[in-house]
Amino acid sequence: MKNLIIASLLLISCVQAAFAQKTKIAEGTGYYLPRTELLFTVKIEKTSYTPGEFAAYAEKYMKLSDVQMEPSVAYRIVDINLTSLGERDTSKFYVLPTASKYNINTIDIDDNGVLLAINAEPKKISTPTPFVPSPKPKAPNPHDYMNEDILAAGSPAKMAELCAIEIYDIRDSKSMLSKGQADFMPKDGEQLRIMLNNLGMQEEALMQLFDGVTVKDTMEATVKFIPTKEVDKQLLFRFSKWMGITDADDLGGNPYYVSVEDMHAMPSVQEGLLNRKKAKDNGGFYFNIPGKIKVTLYDGGKQQSAYELYAAQFGKTEALDEGLFGKKLFTSIVLNPVTGTLENIQMEDVKR
Q1: Closest Cα to residue 295, out of 223, 224, 227?
Q2: In Å, what is the CA distance from 79 to each residue of 144, 235, 304, 317?
Q3: How far apart are CA 79 and CA 131, in angstroms?
Q4: Any alpha helices (H) in the chain, and if so which ranges?
Q5: Max Cα distance, the chain (Å)
Q6: In what order do the strands lie in the sheet with 302-319?
Q7: How does DSSP classify residue 99?
Q8: Which of 13, 73, 153, 305 has a CA between 20 and 30 Å from the CA of residue 342?
Q9: Do 104 and 79 touch, CB atoms closer than 8 A?
Q10: For the ranges 6-20, 42-56, 196-210, 262-276, which has the lowest average pLDDT?
Q11: In this predicted model, which residue has the larger pLDDT, 279 or 109?
């Protein structure tokens, strides 16, 4: 009995997986039209600070004031971009008739069951490429640049003092080289450049012991939003300088709001393409005529950015004239994967 139940569950899951991709029904092929979702891509810069080993002596030996003694992390938003994507609208399921009376050679449906094209190559929509931060050079280890006297010092205070003396010696050497007054001057400009670079690297590494290390990393977060009606400053996400993007109910983050305005505008459709007869329930050749909306993003009460775009759910659904796919015509259509609108339609008379 147990094996029978497991087998039944496996059978159901296989059927559901097949249905999600391309549904074959007795009278045709099932498909969905899309609805439009919005994807906000938030680029964030993370700044991490680690105090230096000799931070307590920074003011005494290096004359550095206000040096942080504790590690810290801070975030800031660098950029926000908006991308519109398409997903299947479960309220718009139809059956594409594939009887012999129709001149249909190919039907393209994506993995989510959304109709892309009939008798044509589907339109390719580029999806956002995941952000990959560029590799960073390895930070120098200050201990690699300590001389024997520094390493042999018996206390942090003495080590800090000797490191400070070494830094000032390096700066004197750089100054003498730049002025051409060093005891051992390089033979040419390339050697001078190499020597100055090496001295600069030593100084930078040893200075980390006093003023600490600051590392900046860039990352991305995505926030999905599906507009279904007009809204005025609906909470989209929250952002904290100390935590980055936070939960919507975390009041420690600054609120970002989104507003949606229906502009009540739709693209026109070529005359003679629509089915003026009463369409059969749950069947036929359907497409979306999307509506234009204005999406505004606010950082608190301040407007951040505004976008105008077409969204399937703010328009209407129409049926194509079934005669377009009769035996006397060869019609190819391409639908927009994001809005479900007619991206392209071509008709040719069939020669007998």
Answers
A1: 227
A2: 38, 19, 10, 35
A3: 13
A4: 2-21, 58-62, 148-152, 156-179, 189-211
A5: 101
A6: 244-246, 231-240, 254-262, 286-299, 302-319
A7: -
A8: 305
A9: no
A10: 6-20
A11: 109
Q: How far is the C-alpha of 118 from the C-alpha of 176, rounded, in Å?
A: 77
If you search the block for the tokens 């010696």, which residue do you land on? 169
Q: In terms of Cα–Cα distance, which of 140, 141, 142, 159 is closest to 151?
A: 159
Q: What is the DSSP string of 209-258?
A: HHH-EEEEEEEEEEEEE---S-EEEEEEEEEETTTEEE-TT-TTSEEEEE
How far apart are alpha carbons 36 and 244 in whole angstroms?
A: 27
User: What does 42-72 look like in DSSP terms, one character per residue?
Assistant: EEEEEEEEE--TTGGGHHHHH---S---S-E
**Cα separation of 46 and 216, whole Å?**
6
The pLDDT tens digits of the residues spanning 30-82 come to 999 999 999 999 999 999 999 999 999 999 999 998 899 999 999 999 999 99
Question: What is residue 320's DSSP assignment?
Answer: B
The whole-angstrom separation of Cα 339 and Cα 348 is: 26
Cα separation, 240 vs 251, in Å, equals 9
**In whole angstroms, what is the distance from residue 17 CA to residue 106 CA?**
21
When pLDDT is cut at 50, 70 and 90, the band that residue 352 belongs to is low
